[in-house]
Amino acid sequence: MNTHTLFTPARLGSVLFTAVAGMMSSAAWSATDIQVWHSLNDHNKQVFEQLVKDFNKQQKDVQVKVRAFSTEEDLDAALRLSSDKERPNLVQLPEITGLDDVATRSYIWPLHQALAKHPIKGVKWFLPADNNFLHDSKGRLLALPFMAEIPVMYYNIDAFKKAGLSPEQPSRSWQELQEQLVSLANNGSRRCPLTSDQPVSINLENLAAVNKQFYTGADSRKVGFNFDTMYIRHLSTMISWVRSEIMVHPSMGPQSPKRFASGECAVFLSNSGNLGDFAAQRKLDFAVSGLPYYPQVTPTPGSPFVTGSGLWLTKGHSAEQDKGTTSFLSWLAQTDNAAKWYQNTGFLPLTHEAFNATADSYYKKLGDWRNLVAVYGQKPANTTRGFKVHNYHQIRAVFNDTLQSALEGKQPAVTALKAAATQANQLLRQK
Questions:
Q1: How many CB atoms are located within 10 Å of the residue 371 CB?
Q2: Which residue stretches of 30-123 are H helix?
Q3: Confidence class for position 29, pLDDT limits 50, 70, 90
Q4: Alpha-carbon distance 237 to 406, whole Å?
Q5: Distance between CA 230 and CA 219 in Å, rounded?
Q6: What is the dihedral sign for C-alpha 340, 341, 345, 349?
Q7: SS3 assignment, position 295
Q8: Is the pTM of this model over 0.85?
């Protein structure tokens, strides 16, 4: 008996039809892949990637794939070298402080254009357009402000108790804080009474904002940089703090937040995006306060500038991918997801709904964190609106080098700031 299958014309046609139908069915049900690049720290990376996993599990039409970079610089270098086909659909890039920054890149697709095609409904963005963060001059969103943050003062409650300081929190006055730092240094926190990883933000940009003074670019009446007496006295004070060892020399990178997370440092001036990582440390009892200010300059402190980064869309993808990308952003903006991100990271709320959905119990051990956040849901004061300055990335690098040199005792404050202002004003006027 012949056991081989005989393929008659009718039989062959049936087999081919079944195969083609199967291929069409597989194509119809294949998911649209979305690529996202980011440079979040280890803790925030875990929170974000868990959100991505949840999104991928809840539906099958769009699958988000993540690529993490060690630093913002590594990510940007890879992005600049990538071709149109290699470029991700979403990429984490920093705020706009330069007029020639991210939004002018040829491959960037402004968020407001994407939302015109694929609206995100039922949400009210937390940061108003007046704040200028990730908005253009017409108040339109350029990117999703998912990693918006503010500089704050973290403090170790156990260290303050050990030093006999009551209440167990730092003073908002720079002069009174100095007295507390001396007590901390003499009673358990000798190795690190205070440190920071944001020297330019703390000692220049937000020295102005928190003291309700205009920083250059924020007021059309003020052109260029001119660091007056307030800046000179402040930097002189910081130099003396480093010399007397009540402040550890500020250092960029992850080592400073790790020192606070381990309990070594009593006070840490840094961005709020570290809050989730600190809250995850079982042995760290900490809280949050606003940056210090000078009562001689302003009777009440102002609010610092919003900083951080956002998720930017890129051009050159298929219509299906663009739709899938905005569906992912819409999912991130849903109240439960946005609230989870805010509560677990320390980035500012994406929406008012996320802020309102956060229970009082979340803030119970976080000091003044709720009040510090709440003001950013309102129209900002003129002195705290985001600023845009030509060539500011280069200018900021100059300021960073200047502060590092001054804090190392290589030049006095007045000389350092005068030289920095001169160089900055030259860069500002360059094309």
A1: 12
A2: 42-58, 72-81, 111-117
A3: low
A4: 11
A5: 18
A6: negative
A7: coil
A8: yes
